[in-house]
Design goal:
The protein is mainly α and 90 residues long. It is built from seven helices and no strands.
């Protein structure tokens, strides 16, 4: 159920819709310890970044210290190399 909350927004996220809802769900799943949940909301953020790269990048940078590495890597997968490098820096 937790993963589904994120995964069901992937198609709308690709179209640039529901950004506020996407961030709200990501906030609620931010510290989830389940690997599949982390992959799900990371994927959701990755898709949202296609239309809202700056907003998603800012969200990731704000939360990267507490965001699990799995979710972080999924979320930045399609971003330009310079942004990925910033997000992965300690």
């Amino acid at each position: 159920m937790r993963r589904a909350a994120a995964v069901t927004l992937i198609l709308p996220a690709r179209k640039g819709k529901f950004l506020d809802d996407i961030f709200e769900i990501a906030d609620s799943l931010l510290l989830d310890t389940d690997d599949l949940v982390q992959k799900g909301y990371g994927w959701m953020l990755k898709e949202a970044s296609k239309k809202h790269q700056k907003q998603v990048f800012d969200y990731i940078m704000k939360n990267k210290d507490k965001m699990p590495r799995t979710a972080l890597r999924y979320a930045i997968e399609k971003m330009p190399p310079d942004l990925r490098k910033q997000a992965m820096a300690k």
